[in-house]
Structure formats: structure tokens, C-alpha cells
Amino acid sequence: MRLTNYDDDDDNDCHQIALERNISKSRKFADRYYFSRDTRLKYIMDQQSVEALGKAMAMRICAAKLPYMVLRGGASSNIGQDSLKIIGWLIEDNPNFETHLIADGLHHFHLNQPEATANLIIPFLKRYRPQSLGDGAQSDVSSELRSKAKL
């Protein structure tokens, strides 16, 4: 089976994970598989398609000062100028925005370099999603973020 390589990313482990997420066994034919899709991508929208929409979304995130993190692979060509413009707005107007560049990271650096990725994500999550205080109580940070996000 042939997969499209991103940025000449030939890591077979990476492809195995992508296959497991996107291939399903047929219920009708026991010896067949079909391409399904990673359901986590169901609501992803191309922010580059309409600049006004991308800016409006970024400004809403900034106005609420919502924690937001973007991790980018430095060796990847998947982030274009439109995306960098949105990242720029978030950097300027949101004190809770973080962006990190994995210098030699390709498109799937989160699969190829899980330790480097985790070293960035875990502190971010601990800072903005602290564990509950018990008895269903929430920390001040957590409840403040929920109210700003209207959750």
C-alpha cells in the first residue's frame, strides 16, 4: 500500500500509525479493508481559504485570551504565509499564545519526535488545565478559562 509522503518523511512507524487511524476492516467482506478517515479531523477547516474568517477566529481567541499553542516543524513546507499571518496576530494580541518550532521537524514530527513534542505540550497543559482540586472543585484558572470560552 502506498502512502503520500509529507516532506519526504519516510519513517515507517509514522506511516503505520497513519494507516491504523485511517484504515478500517470491512464488515461486509472479511478479507478487505477500506479507507476511513481520522475522525479527529472531522471539523478541521482550511483557515487559509478565507483570510477574513481566519482573522476573525484569531481575534476571538485573542479577545478571550484563550490558551493556544501551535507547534511547527521547521523542515516542513505545510505552513504557508497565510497561516504565519494568523500566528502573527495570535502572538501580538494573546498573552496566552505559544508557538514553538521543532527545527528539524517534518510534517509528522509529533510521531517522529514524541519526546520533544511532549516536553512542550505537557507543561502547557499543566499550566492551563490544572488537575481538579477534588470534590468537583476547579482551580481559578480553569473556571476563568471556561467562562471566557463560554463552556
UniProtKB/TrEMBL annotation:
**Gene3D superfamilies, from UniProt?**
alpha/beta hydrolase
Q: Which SUPFAM superfamilies match?
A: alpha/beta-Hydrolases (SSF53474)
Write down the superkingdom of origin: Eukaryota
Name the InterPro entries for this protein.
AB_hydrolase_fold
Give the protein name, as stated in the record.
Answer: Uncharacterized protein
Could you tell me which species this protein originates from?
Bactrocera dorsalis (Oriental fruit fly)
